[in-house]
């Protein structure tokens, strides 16, 4: 049988790896320009670290790792016969692949908070795994590129992260829109509609608006036990104007006496106003009152970034999570973070044809192999090129020159070098520019200086 890939995973060719590095290098440079320091955490965590942090739907997508050895030996026989997967899971698995980078980061902060200097700013670029249904732009193994700040309640952190988003995407050549909301506004809306006890059901359904539309959201709200009367009070959510500040003003009127909702409006108004004062185009920062983001740990601002020219879903997202370390026994460490979706960003840049020529990994020179003494002289020259930081290789066998040409063309090598007996005697080098089709013979010194 031919081997195959696990569903939702991919191999990456040399070209794809080079292009991914191009994106990562731009993000990493900007993370460090904004004062973030690198951190890496293990690919798997204790299952108890991850569960209960992402909501019911998120927990279902965590990849569990079977305990090593005879993992069935300690299973309760009755649970096995009843096929009670919830009870069985904890008996056969105590570890899992990380679902995101935020919860492992919160675990790290909780474990090391006495040694950290706050506010603590870190960035992390590593793969995560989710047992999701694969589709365009959605994979089971993918990279996240996160930047988080913990230990500060200042809303200037939100303003700074908006700048980080826009600067990074501008350097990648992408026009984007940052959708922004606040979980306190969502809590205020639930209170306004008389469904404060159904906040999670409300936000989970609302978060699917882009995928299932207004009718689908209304249907799910009803299925989750939310009365039609409450849904009718929230109908204005689906008919917002393009003016963010005007929409916030409308909310202030509806939130009269609603302390949580008004606090959310006040926070969001500050972030938007300060961003505009720093030159952000109002077209690039949109107050999206229906933006919910399904993760339970968000407590304040929430972000989602979408490419303007390609239909791809979000290519970035994040928000404030003031209570996340509390589940690990450490209180009063507020945090906020954003993530860049490397894989989706790649697909958007590829679809728009925006990868630059330098975002490739190509060999500069291939030396033709003539055998004998010529091979040794070629290797000496290749060594000198590599010491100058120029990529070069020797064709491994003394084969027909046509075969060596074909190899160079298929690999996209720029130049084919001929260092034969005559060139060695005269102290010259002959090379052919395979893209331009031009062949030159120059002195060895001139060649090394070119």
What is the element layout, followed by pairings?
Layout: H1 14-33, E1 37-38, E2 44-46, H2 47-50, H3 55-60, E3 64-65, H4 77-82, H5 85-92, E4 95-97, H6 102-112, E5 120-129, E6 141-150, H7 156-171, E7 176-182, H8 183-192, H9 199-206, H10 209-223, H11 228-233, H12 244-254, H13 259-277, E8 285-287, E9 301-307, E10 314-320, E11 335-341, H14 342-352, E12 365-367, H15 372-387, E13 392-394, H16 401-411, E14 415-418, H17 421-426, E15 428-433, E16 438-443, H18 444-449
Parallel strand pairs: 1-5, 7-8, 12-13, 12-14
Antiparallel strand pairs: 2-4, 3-4, 5-6, 6-11, 7-9, 9-10, 10-11, 14-15, 15-16
Helix pairs in contact: 1-7, 1-14, 7-13, 8-13, 9-10, 12-13
InterPro entries: aa-tRNA-synth_II, aa-tRNA-synth_II/BPL/LPL, Anticodon-bd, Anticodon-bd_dom_sf, His-tRNA-ligase, HisRS-like_core, HisRS/HisZ, HisRS_anticodon
Catalytic activity: tRNA(His) + L-histidine + ATP = L-histidyl-tRNA(His) + AMP + diphosphate + H(+)
Family: Belongs to the class-II aminoacyl-tRNA synthetase family.
Give a written overview of the molecule.
With 450 residues, the chain is an alpha+beta fold. The protein contains 18 helices and 16 strands. The strands form 3 sheets. The chain has an 8-stranded mixed beta sheet with strand order 1-5-6-11-10-9-7-8. The chain has a 5-stranded mixed beta sheet with strand order 13-12-14-15-16. Strands 2-4-3 form a 3-stranded antiparallel beta sheet. β15 and β16 form a beta hairpin. The protein is elongated and about 90 Å long. This is Histidine--tRNA ligase. Keywords: Aminoacyl-tRNA synthetase, ATP-binding, Cytoplasm, Ligase, Nucleotide-binding, Protein biosynthesis. Pfam families: HGTP_anticodon, tRNA-synt_His.
